[in-house]
Specification:
about 20% strand; 7 helices; alpha/beta; Glutaredoxin; 9 strands; five-stranded mixed β-sheet
Length: about 170
């Protein structure tokens, strides 16, 4: 009986792991003040994006993904159509009205002008861009990407070589 209870508690705790999302400013402050800063992960989304919501539910709520990301990254949610000004490396980025909705200049800069949602962006500990990754990612391939950057594998192997060795 105790074994069953232990299994249920373990299963609940594994599924209860959640990512702690930060604002850009909170992550930037942590990166600047922590003695051992983490890399930064930015999830660029919009409120109307169905694939963004699916990735939140399927990928970011996956226990293994949530645990790895929380341990290795400052996790940022950035609305690609958000109205808040963001200052980064001496430049202020703003919302730009365009079409029916508009876009945020910072989201556009991180996505290198390719406005596609969701896009996830990996930055190093010094807030330098490692790579944007456009599109919905299931948990397993997403975790491979996160580990590629999180464990600095990108410094010694290109992506093709890394994925061949898996």
């Amino acid at each position: 009986m105790m074994a069953i209870i232990a299994c249920v508690v373990f299963a609940y705790n594994a599924s209860a792991q959640e990512v702690k999302w930060l604002s850009w400013n909170e992550a930037a402050e942590l990166a600047a003040t922590d003695k051992n800063p983490k890399k930064v992960f930015v999830d660029i989304y919009t409120d109307w994006c169905g694939w963004c919501k699916k990735m939140d539910k399927d990928t970011f709520q996956n226990a293994e993904v949530a645990a790895y990301m929380s341990e290795n990254y400052y996790m940022v949610k950035l609305d690609g159509e958000g109205k808040e000004e963001i200052t980064f490396k001496g430049k202020t980025f703003k919302f730009v009205p365009s079409g029916r909705k508009g876009y945020h200049e910072f989201a556009a800069a991180l996505m290198q002008g390719k406005m596609s949602y969701p896009t996830t962006v990996f930055l190093d500990e010094d807030m330098n861009m490692l790579s944007p990754v456009p599109g919905y990612q299931k948990p397993e391939p997403f975790l491979d990407i996160a580990k590629y950057f999180g464990e600095n594998i990108y410094k010694s192997k290109d992506w093709k070589e890394y994925t061949k060795s898996k």
